[in-house]
Amino acid sequence: MKRIHRNLFFIALSAGIVSFTSCKENKETSTETSAETSHEEMEMSHDEEMGEESAMEMSEAEFDDEKVAANYEAYLDLKDALVATDAEAAQTAAKKLSENTEAEIMEVANKIAEASDIEAQRKAFSELTAMMEPVLENAIASGAIYKQFCPMAFEGKGDYWFASSEEINNPYFGDKMLHCGRVEKTIQ
């Protein structure tokens, strides 16, 4: 009998720990991978998902201005690199964005391109997102852009990013809390 109570206690304790460590705002359920799944298989699966999402994202919103469209595409590449916690890819995307944008946005994009630390890149990405909002709102011709929010970013202060799908892929935490967040606003 003691053994059953002890097992139930450990199961309840484990469930409590899992629920406290997950994002409270996460509305999506994640699938569990089996213990036999290799790290390489998980990376390949993640790359395929990112590729499908990127293709979907690029076809969602259309803009009146080709320059804004190119900047938004580079922004999405940067967001995806941060989601993947890939500092080098973030640098590459930021360089692409800085080549084709206005002075203030170029300055922040250069900050990301010059930083090799992913957390510094994420902090600058927050600034970039705030600067991109009026540009995107004023140039969208059709489709939708989703302004998303993670309440846990930056030590609980929370922060925003843009995406072309409602699916949450958090650039501030990457795979630590991939689906933490919610859609705050739809820009059309």
UniProtKB/TrEMBL annotation:
<dbReference type="InterPro" id="IPR021782">
    <property type="entry name" value="DUF3347"/>
</dbReference>
<feature type="domain" description="DUF3347">
    <location>
        <begin position="72"/>
        <end position="138"/>
    </location>
</feature>
<dbReference type="Pfam" id="PF11827">
    <property type="entry name" value="DUF3347"/>
</dbReference>
<feature type="region of interest" description="Disordered">
    <location>
        <begin position="23"/>
        <end position="44"/>
    </location>
</feature>
<protein>
    <recommendedName>
        <fullName>DUF3347 domain-containing protein</fullName>
    </recommendedName>
</protein>
